[in-house]
Amino acid sequence: MEVLYAGLTAFLVGTGVYLLLSRAILRVVLGLAFVSYGVNLAILATGGLRLDAPPLLSVEGPYVDPLPQALILTAIVIGFGTTALLLTLAVRTHHATGKDDVAAFEDELQRDAVDEGQVADPEHPTNPELPADVDADAPILAPSGGRS
């Protein structure tokens, strides 16, 4: 039984990480859900995997720890809420931009801000124009005021 849980946990976490590395926002949301399901199985396995032992402390004989099961129930409820929120944001973002690619969101938002002349914080622009004597491709070095 432990080998089955370990294999299923590894499969869920591996699939979740693979989907998280994708650029499509729906795959990122599903990957986050898969990772949380894999972690829930790992937590369940730490509480003990015995078929003849109920999670009741009032019963005589062997029992499994009920705390991991309570934590998993809480994590499932929080996970459903988080997944619903992320899916709502994904649908809203898809309607607003017409794209499902995560990298395209930044390009689209920057292009809109430049076209409209708007910035998020007018007092601190994110891309101020550089003076003519500064090379834009040169690396920016931090001032040497710290310890050596």
From TrEMBL:
It comes from the Bacteria. Residues 113-148 are annotated as: Disordered. It is found in: Cell membrane. It is a multi-pass membrane protein. Its main location: membrane. Pfam families: Oxidored_q2. Keywords: Cell membrane, Membrane, Transmembrane, Transmembrane helix. Belongs to the CPA3 antiporters (TC 2.A.63) subunit C family. This is Multicomponent Na+:H+ antiporter subunit C. One of its GO terms (cellular component) is plasma membrane. It comes from Deinococcus yavapaiensis KR-236. The chain crosses the membrane at residues 6-21, 28-49, 69-91. The keyword Ligase does not apply.
